[in-house]
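Summary of Year 1 activities. Much of the first year was spent building the evaluation harness for sequence design. The harness presents a backbone, in tokenized form, and records the residue chosen at every position. We chose the following record to illustrate the format because it has been used consistently in internal testing since the harness was completed.
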């Protein structure tokens, strides 16, 4: 049989020195819970084990002998194994109940130093007390394998603290062990190194290690990620994301929130700057968190990041619920794409911010929102106009003096409302989406007095939200029609190269709001009357007046029970000389009009849904720039009346029909436009503003 050498530490011998018996007779019994090991062992004692300052002799190898149990007297134990200096008492970092048997009545016992978690010391079931007086310590020498499993409770990790003598009596011991007789001690065949002494410090719970967070995250993931504001497909994407990374936390470590996690949470906390509600992205703040807290916080922070990215791109409300005529193609990011960008990125705050619109119109409104919030404590104007009856041109009123002061006129200019003041008032009304008639009524006075700051914020936020409905890339070249402003603009490389007035749909037949691609123009177009106009306008007139179609130049085409009415090209054609085509579900487009006098009106909502354009041939020249043939405005004019002609664009041109009731001019002035279809009001209501 091979001889193995075992070195026992001082802490184990300190335990041995506390009892009068060293080896339990139970080892020799055939019914012992720990059968004798298959190898013989030699006991080697070091100077530190013996508590002596000088080297001790090492026992020479001996021939293997059968393992036997030996009963030693108390005097022999004291003589051969002197007790080392008393170490500090062992203190648990959690409350325990006092043992049933008072330890003071037990034989004197030296307290061992704190054992490391992997020292191999494990509690064994208590055995009945022996017949001989006094407790007995049972020691067993065993190989490294196999490790014997026991049903006794496992001790929690301990924190060693050295109390002052005044606080702890010399014999005081606080530990979570059963009352005597004491459990058996299993000594492994590899010595354990005692931990280095540490200075006294407060007793605190040990921080969680990442491998403690991971199993809890895996266990709670499916339930924690299920949120009413998160689409089911995003929940599945988050679960798959964590599974792919072995359920390792993304934003937390054993010490709490990581640096990247702090940056992400900081961006979420600034949601109000972009008109979002910070409470929708409230990230948990943890103090002395448990591993479970860290796991749940990590899952929530990831879900909030996905929600923020979607909301930044227009995911807060469904525009189609506001009206069937609002049909933008939302560019909502998939959760998998958001997480792929965030994973491992050193600046997750920048990643999230990039989902906000980058359009100049959006940034200008965002700046105005910040200005408004900063100035709200001083929002009231220095001149406040009292309420009263409406004041028309030629009327005298004491309030006129205040109104003149409000607009910078000299007070001595009088109490009469004259044409000069009316011009300024009309301009103010136009900028505040009021009828620009110069009449100083209640709505005009309310606007002069500053209005409600919260309502102003709500208007800005609602307009910012509609910017989110647009594609992230409007196109290097594009057309944009703002319906409430009655304007169309051609934009190239961020600069407006052309602007023109337009006529849009009347309130009962609104112009749809959407984006598409213009691919061709038609010169000298014919007009096939759309079904809605045919049913509501043309057929009743045809039924009442059989000569109506002939006088209008309409061609009535019958195919069985179907009737189609077509107006051929000509000076009286409802589409004028040209139309700009971008096939869409609403069957609307831009076109010329023979009723050009309508462009002189301030309020230009007269069409049946299509957009009528002022100076359409100039716009056509810009649209066709780069297209083969050199389509100048002059050349197009020369072809008017020569027959219907289709001109296809070399490159499709993005066109965006939008609904913005607020815009910022180049000089920084915020302009307001009439909510002609009520879409602004509906947006505010949907957002809870």
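For this record, the design step produced the sequence shown next.
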């Amino acid at each position: 049989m091979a001889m193995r050498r075992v070195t026992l530490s001082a802490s184990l011998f300190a335990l041995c020195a506390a009892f009068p018996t060293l080896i339990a007779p139970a080892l020799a019994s055939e019914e012992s819970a720990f059968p004798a090991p298959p190898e013989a062992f030699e006991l080697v004692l070091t100077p530190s084990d013996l508590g002596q300052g000088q080297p001790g002799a090492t026992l020479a190898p001996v021939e293997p002998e059968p393992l036997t149990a030996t009963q030693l007297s108390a005097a022999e134990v004291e003589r051969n194994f002197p007790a080392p200096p008393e170490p500090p008492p062992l203190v648990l970092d959690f409350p325990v109940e006092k043992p049933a048997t008072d330890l003071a009545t037990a034989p004197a016992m030296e307290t061992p130093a704190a054992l490391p978690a992997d020292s191999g010391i494990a509690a064994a079931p208590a055995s009945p007390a022996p017949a001989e007086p006094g407790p007995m310590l049972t020691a067993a020498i065993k190989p490294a394998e196999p490790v014997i499993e026991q049903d006794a409770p496992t001790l929690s990790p301990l924190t060693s603290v050295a109390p002052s003598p005044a606080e702890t009596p010399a014999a005081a011991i606080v530990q979570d062990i059963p009352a005597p007789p004491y459990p058996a001690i299993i000594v492994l065949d590899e010595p354990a190194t005692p931990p280095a002494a540490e200075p006294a410090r407060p007793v605190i719970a040990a921080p969680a290690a990442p491998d403690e967070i991971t199993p809890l995250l895996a266990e709670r993931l499916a339930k924690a990620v299920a949120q009413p504001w998160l689409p089911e497909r995003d929940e599945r994407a988050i679960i798959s994301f964590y599974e792919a990374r072995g359920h390792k936390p993304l934003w937390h470590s054993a010490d709490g929130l990581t640096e990247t996690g702090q940056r992400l949470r900081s961006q979420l906390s600034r949601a109000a700057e972009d008109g979002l509600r910070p409470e929708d992205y409230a990230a948990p703040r943890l103090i002395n968190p448990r591993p479970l807290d860290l796991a749940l916080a990590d899952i929530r922070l990831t879900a909030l990041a996905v929600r923020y990215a979607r909301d930044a791109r227009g995911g807060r409300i469904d525009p189609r619920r506001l009206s069937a005529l609002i049909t933008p193609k939302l560019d909502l990011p998939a959760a998998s794409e958001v997480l792929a960008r965030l994973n491992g990125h050193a600046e997750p705050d920048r990643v999230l911010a990039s989902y906000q619109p980058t359009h100049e119109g959006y940034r200008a409104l965002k700046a105005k929102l910040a200005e408004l919030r900063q100035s709200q404590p001083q929002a009231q104007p220095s001149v406040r106009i009292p309420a009263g009856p409406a004041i028309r041109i030629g009327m005298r009123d004491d309030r006129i003096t205040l109104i003149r002061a409000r607009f910078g006129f000299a007070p001595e200019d009088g109490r009469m409302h004259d044409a000069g003041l009316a011009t300024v008032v009309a301009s103010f009304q136009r900028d505040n989406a009021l009828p620009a008639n110069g009449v100083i009524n209640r709505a005009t006075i309310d606007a002069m007095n500053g209005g409600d700051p919260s309502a102003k914020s709500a208007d800005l936020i609602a307009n910012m939200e509609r910017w989110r409905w647009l594609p992230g890339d409007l196109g290097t070249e594009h057309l944009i029609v703002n319906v409430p402003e009655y304007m169309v603009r051609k934009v190239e490389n961020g600069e407006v190269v052309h602007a023109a007035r337009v006529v849009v749909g009347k309130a009962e037949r609104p112009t749809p709001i959407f984006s598409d691609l213009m691919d061709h123009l038609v010169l000298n177009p014919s007009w096939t009357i759309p079904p809605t106009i045919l049913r509501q306008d043309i057929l009743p007139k045809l039924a009442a007046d059989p000569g109506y179609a002939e006088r209008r130049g309409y061609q009535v085409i019958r195919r069985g029970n179907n009737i189609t009415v077509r107006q051929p090209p000509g000076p009286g054609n409802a589409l004028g000389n040209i139309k700009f085509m971008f096939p869409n579900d609403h069957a609307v487009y831009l076109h010329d009009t023979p009723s050009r006098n309508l462009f002189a009106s301030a309020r230009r909502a007269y069409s049946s849904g299509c957009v009528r354009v002022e100076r359409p041939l100039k716009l056509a020249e810009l649209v066709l720039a780069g297209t083969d043939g050199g389509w100048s405005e002059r050349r197009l004019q020369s072809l008017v009346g020569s027959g219907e002609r289709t001109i296809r664009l070399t490159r499709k041109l993005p066109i965006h029909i939008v609904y913005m009731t607020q815009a910022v001019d180049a000089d920084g002035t915020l302009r307001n436009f009439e909510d002609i279809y009520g879409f602004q009001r509906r947006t505010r209501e949907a957002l809870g503003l």
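The CA atoms of residues 274 and 432 lie 23 Å apart. Quantitative recovery figures across the full test set are reported in Table 2.
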